[in-house]
Automatic annotation (TrEMBL):
The lineage of its organism: Eukaryota, Metazoa, Chordata, Craniata, Vertebrata. Heteromer of p110, p125, p140 and p200 subunits; disulfide-linked. Interacts with VEGFA. Interacts with CD93; this interaction promotes angiogenesis. Interacts with CD248. Residues 72-94 are annotated as: Disordered. Extracellular matrix protein that plays significant roles in the vascular system and is required for the maintenance and stability of blood vessel. Affects several essential steps in angiogenesis including endothelial cell proliferation, migration, and tube formation. Positively regulates angiogenesis by acting as a ligand for CD93 receptor. The keyword Disulfide bond applies. Its main location: secreted. One of its GO terms (cellular component) is collagen trimer. Keywords: Angiogenesis, Coiled coil, Collagen, Disulfide bond, Extracellular matrix, Glycoprotein, Secreted, Signal. The keyword Repeat does not apply. This is Multimerin-2. It comes from Neovison vison (American mink). The gene is E7EN39.
Amino acid sequence: DLRRVGRCCEASGASSLNSSLESLHEALATAQRDWEQHRRLFHGLFGNFQGLVASNISLDLGKLQTMLSRKGKKQKGLEAPRRRDRKQAETWADEPVQGPVLGEAGSPVAFYAGFSEGTASLQTVKFNATYINIGSSYFPEHGYFRAPERGVYLFAVSVEFGPGPGTGQLVFGGHHQTPVSSTEEQRGGSTATTFTMAELQKGERVWFELTQGSIIKRNPPGTAFGGFLMFKT
């Protein structure tokens, strides 16, 4: 029994000794890494000490203190307007936004259609090839766009007129017209493009009508009509 107890004590002592040696080894490794870092830092700061001494350059601590004091005052002077600007920006951010907002939340409205058939009839042009009709507000069977919301809209029309002078107009609600014309008398015809903005009431219609000349037949179309809602009013 005494032998067994002795063996147990020896095993326990050996285990404790091994644990202590491992801890000591880790501590030495950590100390070595720290010393190496300090050595590199010291060398980086004072490695050129002999060169500095040989160059006979003196450091005026009084001038250094004066320079730092001026820099501190300048920094304080800049901080005041910055604080005022931040305060003003926070005030503006808290104020509610007034008036229309471009791209505000809601159902988007946009359309784009082409006319490939060609015509010489002085009437409303029914753009028969619809490429985009978000909101289903363009009616190709009638050739007009109907505003689904009150707001400001942007429209564009590009017309490929036939030979000779050609004119047309964008009509807004039957009471306002924007002319589209080409006076160049070219043998192969000419193209005229117009952009316009208008504030429409809900339900108002917009269309393009030919008033002189002809429109060339072409596929894919060389004549197109499009627009979109910029913002509600």
